[in-house]
Amino acid sequence: MKNKKWISLLVLLLAHLMTIVDIFIVNIAIPTIQQGLDTTHSEIQLVIAMYMIGFASFLIIGGKAGDHYGRKNVFLLGTFIFMISSAWCGFAATSGQLIALRFFQGVSAGLMSPQVLSYIQVLFTDHQQRTYAIGWYGIAIGIGTMLGQFLGGFLVALKPYIIDQSWRYIFLINVPICILTIGLANRYLKPSKDQNSVKMDYASAAILSIGLVLLIFSLTIGLEQDNPLHNSGLPLSILFITVFVLRQKRRLKIQKQTLLNLTLFTFKNFNMAVLLVALFMLMLDAYFFVLALFLQDGLKLAPMHAGYFVVFQGGGFILSSLFAAKWVLRFGKNVLLFGVFLLIVAMISQLVLFYHQQIGFTGYIIMAMHGFGVALVLPSFANIALKDIPENMIGNASGVYSTLQQLFGAIGIALTGGVFYYILDGNSDFIHFYKAFKYGLLIHLSCLIGVLCTLIYLPKSILPLGVSKNKKPL
Q1: Which of 117, 115, 113, 107 is nearest to 55 (CA)?
Q2: pLDDT tens-digit profile of 346-368?
Q3: φ and ψ at 390, to 5 degrees?
Q4: Which of 99, 193, 306, 328 lies at a CB distance of 3.0 to 4.6 Å from 295, suitable for a disulfide?
Q5: What pLDDT is stored for residue 467 in this prediction?
Q6: What is the rounded distance in angstroms from the CA atom of residue 140 to the CA atom of residue 116?
Q7: 146-179 burial, b if ≥16 CB within 10 A, otherwise e?
Q8: How confident is the model at residue 182 (pLDDT cuts 50, 70, 90)?
């Protein structure tokens, strides 16, 4: 029975790993996809961002669906849709098809991901075992980051024997992994659901999803002057999001189930964590986006070499994950401040290093330093967000936090990518690529300075996650 519990965790983490890999595996393949499908700069941004938007818009929905319809059922459904959408991505004929399919791939990830954390809570009732399980959950993020970058370079470098273009392998590889996951999940995952759950507010879910999709479109393709979304996309997204918020307020007032409990935003710690994760995620995923472009199109590295270079970031993340939790318990927010400092040093060092077009041993150390800093900082934001949240709101708070994390990651890609391509202005020489990369990193450094300023207002000691049944909002 004990072994079966850990096998179940392994199955869940395999699915979790896939959802993380598919955020990063595309980065290294960007130039190859652009060439293969003749995509515009805005369209290639959407190939990455729409996965994250599908992910973000269905995280809360996926969590509630698992509670109501059964976590195993929703997990299997999400994995099946992920398999089908991945296969279609691999055979997409146009950039429009790939963008749409990436959204559905993200939706399926949004269905799978909440079940992983829910199952950890159900399977591991012992505090120590649950701590280990959540630790492995965090390590899987680092492995997914590293594996995504490596596989992106490796698969793109393969010769296209059966298919016409090698970038298609980065999506098709998900198919056998999903088949394996479905088989193992069907055997080892026990049925689980919340008997007290209520029916989903589908109208609110649809309104939120449309608003988020329009927002990202308006920040990428909508910025092109000849695109109809240039004038209408942003106002429409604001309208849908406003309607969603007003609908949640009304349902809360009449004591109906809400998709988003707005009471969460009356908790100081939650608001601080939202600000921190917003600034941090505006930087993080966009950084990998412009870095992949600069390494291949600016420094003219082969995809395999570029992927291998970024792998060291994931290695630093995994190494730091082994110690970060203990250090935070002992030294409090000083660990976070040190992590942000490492990130700032790593980015400034990259600007100097890349200016001289060098990425040798020193470059590998700098990338490992970057990953080490990320793991010191990012995981603690979730603990800050959930600290002092009442027990009956923990699930909703976790879903909202994860949604905002993915949302701001997508917005960061749209904004930084827009600036990057604007500075590049169609040029392909090293000087212009370095200038575009530099301005991108200046945006990211500004975000990190914002994180530093916010951290100053946090208490000196960040305590372990505590759940209060009687805590009232400020």
Answers
A1: 107
A2: 999 999 999 988 788 899 999 99
A3: -55, 150
A4: 306
A5: 40
A6: 12
A7: bbbbbbbbbbbbeeeeeeeebbbbbbbbbeebbe
A8: very high
Q: What is the pLDDT of residue 474?
A: 41
pLDDT in tens, 13-42: 898 889 889 888 888 888 889 888 988 888
The model's confidence at residue 195, banded by pLDDT at 50, 70 and 90, is low
Higher pLDDT: 3 or 102? It is 102
3-state secondary structure the chain: CHHHHHHHHHHHHHHHHHHHHHHHHHHHHHHHHHHHHCCCHHHHHHHHHHHHHHHHHHHHHHHHHHHHHCHHHHHHHHHHHHHHHHHHHHCCCCHHHHHHHHHHHHHHHHHHHHHHHHHHHHHCCCHHHHHHHHHHHHHHHHHHHHHHHHHHHHHHHCCCCCCCCHHHHHHHCHHHHHHHHHHHHHHHCCCCCCCCCCCCCHHHHHHHHHHHHHHHHHHCHHHCCCCCHHHHHHHHHHHHHHHHHHHHHHHHHCCCCCCCCHHHHHCHHHHHHHHHHHHHHHHHHHHHHHHHHHHHHHCCCCHHHHHHHHHHHHHHHHHHHCCHHHHHHHHCHHHHHHHHHHHHHHHHHHHHHHHCCCCCHHHHHHHHHHHHHHHHHHHHHHHHHHCCCEHHHHHHHHHHHHHHHHHHHHHHHHHHHHHHHHHHCCCCCHHHHHHHHHHHHHHHHHHHHHHHHHHCCCCCCCCCCCCECCCCCC
Give me the pLDDT at residue 468, please.
41
pLDDT at 213: 82
pLDDT in tens, 245-293: 899 888 888 878 777 778 888 888 888 889 999 999 999 989 998 998 9
Which residue bears the tokens 């600016």?
A: 298
Q: What is the spatial distance between Cα 13 and Cα 123, in angstroms, rounded to a whole number?
A: 13
